[in-house]
Amino acid sequence: MEAITIKDIARALNLSTSTVSRALRGSYEISPETKRLVMEYAERMEYRPNPIALSLKANRSKVLGVVVPQIANHFFSQAINGIEAIAYNRGYHVIIMQSHENYEREAIAVQQAVSRKVDGLLLSLSSQTVDVSHLQTLHDKQFPMVLFDRVAPSLNVPKITADNYEGAFAATEHLIRTGRRRIAHISIPAHVSITQERLAGYRDALQKHGLPYDETLVRHMGLGQHEMAPVVRELLGQSPPPDAFFTASDRLALGCMEALRLLGVRIPEQVALVGFTNVTVAHLLAPALTTIEQPAIEIGQLAAERLIDLIERPQHKTTTGVQKLPTRLVVRASTGSVTVAE
């Protein structure tokens, strides 16, 4: 059975197509009785609006483009859940693409999204992205765009992130208060925005408690867990060795935990460990992982709301600074339970 159209409804009820169209939109120009007749007939015949026709008429596709480094990453999968929830509630669909932490693939994904006529773009930068001219060009053309999590300070667009500084400060301070004094920090490439913010929180927590910042305890690396073993081995070879590891993500923490286990280092008796994200399995690890919880779903929701506002109210003044959502320290067995009085 072919889908029924507005013309079919108009012919069946002996009305004009414009009257039927206005009745379906609930226009005040149409009498209540006519609206009732049209709506009842449309429901009985299972009428559904043609989304392509609607988008052509409004010059909008009602589709949002989302580009993330990796869907398998727990944070990004949760953020996408938040994005899709808001998009669905506001009548939008979502196209999701991955950069796989690669700058060229990110640029291609952005180009593909625009060529598919998405109404706007939600994007978190790849770990390789330093040059954001591909995004600046879009912004110069007033293309609606919101960055989230990994952002570019030079782009004058709305940015939604976790409060990475406060999260890293809380993680480091927690380790200090449990008696740790040689805290190693392992993070992703140094140019990434979240790396810089988390490093600043780590440094300031050390300074607050009178501990020196030691560059030999800081490492920047890729995102592969297999790369962790030589880094951990090198750090433990220092004299004195670190008594704690604060990693800038739970994925790095998992790699660190595996490396420590292979080296026969006991957690937390010999070395404490803190991650950043709060992956769903963090409490199931042995020992359970102390970590910083990011509000991933809320970040996705807020980013989607900001983008849709940009699309639907282009003349409305929109805040283009960074909006930071609070993080939360989740204490588990990987840092022990002894708190040292200050």
UniProtKB/TrEMBL annotation:
One of its GO terms (molecular function) is transcription cis-regulatory region binding. It comes from the Bacteria. It holds the Pfam family LacI. InterPro entries: HTH_LacI (IPR000843), Lambda_DNA-bd_dom_sf (IPR010982), Peripla_BP/Lac1_sug-bd_dom (IPR001761), Peripla_BP_I (IPR028082). CDD domains: HTH_LacI, PBP1_LacI_sugar_binding-like. Coiled coil: none annotated. Residues 4-58 form the HTH lacI-type domain. Keywords: DNA-binding, Transcription, Transcription regulation. This is Transcriptional regulator, LacI family. It comes from Fibrella aestuarina BUZ 2.
